[in-house]
Design brief:
Helix content is 40%, strand content 13%. The chain is α+β, with helices and mostly antiparallel strands.
């Protein structure tokens, strides 16, 4: 699924996939974010393999698995409201499959986003920027970074050539290039949708080289 230019991956139940969600068994879940399920399953398999090898489980230095290895180990995953039921395929040590119950809860459909607040502003008075404006801003930042990479690599020698290629003015090119120098925290806030309304492309263009000063110029606390 793509929303506001961002791609999301979900696992959908068979009844939900065929428009028959009402026929699903009690306690089933119709749709869940794929990355969270994959992370929980990967951690459980890593822990199991570590125990089989008589190694202490270390979450900071886990055993690495790619999808192909996981597919070779896991035979079935059933997603329920309060747990995941994972079955492993038989191995050389055991001819029977093993089943594990992994505590899990479906995350809320809408997650709270901690919007960057201007100094002295009250949270209840601040709303996030609209999705279409957010997409326009993210696209402009990505364009500025791409153009800067072209200039640094030498594939484009100056802004005038970029302006000719993009059919815009040199001033527009320079303003877009300036977005490539935004503080990483501001870029991440834009991608996450945590910038308040009013912090648009025009406000972010031509930023101060000092990242802390960028926050101050926008009225944010740099810390």
């Amino acid at each position: 699924m793509i929303a506001a230019g961002v791609r999301y991956r979900y696992y959908v139940s068979q009844p939900g996939l065929h428009g028959e969600a009402r026929t699903a068994t009690l306690g089933s879940v119709s749709r869940v974010p794929a990355p969270e399920i994959e992370q929980a399953i990967t951690s459980a398999v890593q822990r199991h393999v570590a125990e089989q090898k008589l190694q202490p489980w270390n979450s900071d230095d886990p055993i690495k698995f790619d999808r192909a290895v996981l597919a070779a180990l896991v035979s079935r995953i059933e997603i329920q409201r309060t747990k995941l039921v994972m079955s492993l395929k038989p191995t050389d040590r055991s001819t029977e499959s093993m089943t594990f119950l992994i505590p899990w809860q479906k995350p809320p459909a809408r997650r709270f986003r901690e919007i960057l607040l201007p100094n002295g502003a009250l949270r209840e008075h601040i709303r996030p920027d609209r999705a279409e404006r957010r997409l326009r801003l993210i696209s402009a930042i990505a364009r500025g970074r791409r153009w800067l990479d072209e200039i640094v690599s030498g594939s484009i020698t100056d802004a005038a050539l970029l302006a000719k290629r993009e059919r815009c003015t040199v001033r527009q090119v320079n303003l877009t290039l300036s977005l490539a120098f935004l503080a990483p925290q501001l870029v991440k806030a834009a991608v996450d949708g945590r910038l308040p309304r009013g912090i648009n492309i025009e406000r972010l263009r031509d930023p101060d080289p000092n990242w802390a000063k960028q926050f101050q110029d926008l009225g944010f606390n740099p810390n």
